[in-house]
Amino acid sequence: MLTKFETKSSRVKGLSFHTKRPWILASLHSGVIQLWDYRMGTLIDRFDEHEGPVRGVHFHNSQPLFVSGGDDYKIKVWNYKMHRCLFTLLGHLDYIRTVQFHNEYPWIVSSSDDQTIRIWNWQSRTCVSVLTGHNHYVMCASFHPKEDLVVSASLDQTVRVWDIGALRKKTVSPADDILRLSQMNTDLFGGIDAVVKYVLEGHDRGVNWASFHPSLPLIVSGADDRQVKLWRMNDTKAWEVDTLRGHMNNVSCVMFHAKQDIIVSNSEDKSIQMNLLAAGHDSGMIVFKLERERPAFSVSGDSLYYVKDRFLRLFEFSSQKDSQVIPIRRPGSVSLNQGPRTLSYSPTEKAVLICSDVDGGSYELYLVSKDGVGRGDAVLDAKKGTGGSAVFIARNRFAVLDKITNHVSVKNLKNEIVKKSLLPIATDVIFYAGTGNVLCRAEDRVVIFDLQQRLVLGELMTPSVKYVIWSNDMENVAFLSKHAIIIANKKLVHRCTLHETIRVKNGAWDDNGVFIYTTLNHIKYCLPNGDSGIIRTLDVPIYITKVSGNSVFCLDRDGKNRVISVDATEYIFKLALIRKKYDHVMSMIRNSQLCGQAVISYLQQKGFPEVALHFVKDEKTRFNLALESGNIQVAVASAKEIDEKDYWYRLGIEALRQGNTSIVEYAYQKTKNFERLSFLYLVTGNMEKLAKMLKIAEVKNDIMGQFHNALYLGDVEERVKILENAGQLPLAFVTASVHGLVETADRLAADLGDSVPSLPQDKVPSLLMPPKPLMCSGDWPLLRVMRGIFEGGLDTMGRTHEEEEDEDAIGAEWGDDDLDIGDVGGVVQNGDMDAIVDGEEGEDNDDEGGWDLEDLELPPDVDTPKAAVNARSQFVTPTPGVPVSQIWTQKSSLAGEHAAAGNFDTAACLLNRQLGINNFGPLKSLFMDLYMGSHSYLYISASVPTVSLAIEKGWRESGSANLRNPPVMVFQFSQLDDKLKLAYRATTEGKFPEALRLFLSILHTIPLIVVESRREVDDVKELIMIAREYVLGLKMEFKRKESKNSLVRQQELAAYFTNCKLQKIHLRLVLLSAMSICYKGGNFTTAANFARMLLDTNPTSDSHMKKAKQVLNACGDKKDSNQLNYDFRNPFVVCGATYVPIYRGQKDVSCPYCLSRFVPSIAGQLCQVCELAVVGSDASGLFCSPSQTR
């Protein structure tokens, strides 16, 4: 059996399933009753009014009620919707063992240790019958599901069947008063409403449980004698049919399965409902399912093949016609939980492959007749076989997994093995993965394996996968585990992972490439980028078979086909946004009823606040979205509606960022932020309004504000006056003296007397004057851009004709010439502004004196600036573009282009993955050269940061701004050709250090080279071979020169140098050198061999030829005096680290980049030839051209 749900609690005494909902009641020894949702695994409610253990509990089949009985002698009836006990039934004199509702009548039957069974009317809340006759504890009592019978089991070793027909007749047709009077005496003397029909004797010890069969005249009982007995009854008698033995302890509960021919028994209390079984034990309970609830099915085009009961059925999606195809097994021929697990279908051959867990895993192959459906009950002869799983992989081929040997057998429709393949990983299940391919599932990964070529096509690390669902075009695949969904493409490149808190059941791809899946209680969607959401809620779990438009076709747990209508608008809208189909988005916004906080949050999160703006009515949310999208017009309108200081302040910040100084001014006016206003006028050069700010500060009696404004204006006389009025005479004297106001300074000096501050004598004073602004008043230069698709199409949505006329009437410019600060008098606290003005005018009435406060015309609030620029020239904040260097990295897998883009990390990762390079020290300067060579820097002015410009290959002024060319590369293949020639020359001239430096430089540059054609790729690979041979040979030559003390080692290294593939001119020099060294060392045979090799090269130098012939003659038949580790007859390569020969047939490892060979002990070390890659590491190979991807 399969565990579905488990809890931990005190001892469970009673259990009851709800008839419709996925609920189960558990009564505990602690006196608590728990209500669980076993599907979700959550505790819904708990009821704890009983005093002591609660042994019996039962749900009503239609009302929101359940009944419980406990050791406190009480029967309680509860309403779980009201979360309380409705009433208590009293009458039993000892522990109550079981309680049960009648299916039809308002009755409750209860059994008790007081040796009685009572039947209660829960509507009238009275006891209607007492059944006496047992002479020991009555352990259980239950109604017959259809007939007027009650069965009871007692520790007196008997099972009794009671006839309650008279009680039913009395309930249906009430009797006269005399009959009612006799009913009242029932409790005292026992009535004739219930009589014993049968007494079943046969158990040797006390009987713990007895129950009726739901439809047959059978009774099953379990007792302390460890036996389960089956009884049959008719109208006149009952007799024992069979005895079932096997329990090693007392049988405390036994019952029939509701549908199958199964008896379930155990040593703790159990309850059963359809396919579910619950068992309570000392520390909790477990809910089991007897069989898999998921039907086996396979979708092929417009058809769905599935297994229901014992038939293979066909459902057509277009016509919704359901028909029986063939019977697949005989009734009762399958054991528990061994029904069909998976189904695979071959549409061309009309073949069905059904897998089950029979015999540890087996399959059955059925060939369906071409003429379609059949109704015969004769089971077709199926071709059978054993295997963990089986799937069709071609028209007439299917693969079978053998888990023991980890092999896959490919078989034909005659069930004959055609081919066998060993799988690359330890596989427990295989799935279909395209023609000729299988998807192998291990515990922590999945692998696509090509059975024909025996190659691994893709690998992905995943949690344990239960189901694999391919899209219709086989381009995408979804892996379903218990609580996660992994989306990948056909090569198993990971795209996204989605985690769920509850179990994922099933899924299917819709026509738009969206994955629709179900959990226990929802239908949900998963977009290609990993975004998900809920489509609708489910009452019961379903298994999706196909998604078409707004219809979801599915199978329920009973194997019935259902069509569920869903609203796909939300995920289609999001998909259109992701795919940038903005015309589709516009159409959906206009025509559909999209709304809700979820859609708004999604649009805001994904960078489309301007779209979200059209779904929002709340002004605060509109304000936030408008700021985020840069829509100042909507932000101003919302700020006016909200009219809170914080919102005006944020509006000012955004307007200042955009350079819209008119709105900044307006926002500062609304918040009475005079200090910021003054500074704004200073930087914009608006001296006229700055002068007005000075007057306002004076009216407010703000000394610091006056001084700052005078400082901004450069008005020295005003500053001296302010300091003098504030009592700061020394500062006023210094200010006047420094700025050359002699008369004022003398007057202040007289007032100061002896306290006149001294001024520095040798210092040249400089005037503290405000700088000249770059722009004098007005907005900063605003970038005029084309309005986006959303701004143009959506701005008019929802606007009335009156609103449009109002906007036209207000005008198209921000602000006005006068300063709008509202009511200045309201700012002057504890003072009368008119009195101040009158006082000033009274002191000096001539036209030139005093402050001209008449100019301070403060316009009313209605003259607020409006962002009503006409639609054709409306400013829209441009969306920051993607840097060209980022486009380079997104479009390319070439390490050189990533380095040119400045993305050194990804360049290093690519080199590591492609060539196994792990030492990036030699490449650092090359990375920097590539980056600097593909960028230029534009200096504009001292106050503006330097602008970095990416230099593209083949850029043209007429080219499209949306199409970006690859970067200009400073390293060209032609440069390496020139460097190779220099290296050759240095080698010829014997400048070995210079030659080695040049050859290494070539090897270090090639990983970052980018070429255009396949032919050039071959040339690059050939250049790697050439440079490798020369580097290896030159390093051996250096090693030879260091080995002065070992003559044998010198000869060996010289001999190995001759094995390198060199240019003929260099090979002659190497052979000449080796010949001379070996001759001097007394190894005449080896020297003679080198002389012959030299002559075979047809040397152009007469001296070389002459010397070779002389050595050949001198050596004659002389033997070698020293044994060298060199055999010119046996082909070999030289280890690049130890410089020893590796002869043909010996094991070796190679460098993934330069392909130098090494002895196995060098694996994992840095290659000594190229000095870049790690020997023996896995790498995909050199990738230096876009043509390699085509």
Q: Any chance you could write out the topology, listing elements then pairs?
A:
Blueprint: E1 2-8, E2 12-17, E3 23-28, E4 33-37, E5 42-47, E6 54-59, E7 65-70, E8 74-79, E9 84-90, E10 96-101, E11 107-112, E12 116-121, E13 126-132, E14 138-143, E15 149-154, E16 158-163, H1 165-172, H2 177-184, H3 186-189, E17 195-201, E18 207-212, E19 218-223, E20 227-233, E21 238-245, E22 253-256, E23 263-266, E24 270-273, E25 276-281, E26 284-289, E27 297-300, E28 303-308, E29 311-316, E30 321-327, E31 340-346, E32 351-356, E33 362-367, E34 383-386, E35 390-394, E36 397-402, E37 407-412, E38 417-422, E39 429-432, E40 437-441, E41 445-450, E42 455-461, E43 467-470, E44 476-480, E45 484-489, E46 494-499, E47 504-509, E48 515-519, E49 522-526, E50 532-537, E51 542-548, E52 551-556, E53 561-565, H4 569-578, H5 582-591, H6 597-605, H7 609-612, H8 619-629, H9 632-642, H10 645-658, H11 661-670, H12 674-684, H13 687-699, H14 703-713, H15 716-725, H16 729-738, H17 742-752, H18 789-794, H19 801-810, H20 833-843, H21 884-891, H22 895-900, H23 904-915, H24 924-933, E54 935-938, E55 947-950, H25 973-988, ...
Antiparallel strand pairs: 1-26, 2-3, 3-4, 4-5, 6-7, 7-8, 8-9, 10-11, 11-12, 12-13, 14-15, 15-16, 16-17, 18-19, 19-20, 20-21, 22-23, 24-25, 25-26, 27-28, 28-29, 29-30, 31-32, 32-33, 33-34, 35-36, 36-37, 37-38, 39-40, 40-41, 41-42, 43-44, 44-45, 45-46, 47-48, 48-49, 49-50, 51-52, 52-53, 54-55, ...
Helix pairs in contact: 4-5, 8-9, 9-10, 10-11, 11-12, 12-13, 12-14, 13-14, 14-15, 15-16, 16-17, 25-26, 26-27, 27-28, 28-29, 29-30, 29-31, 30-31
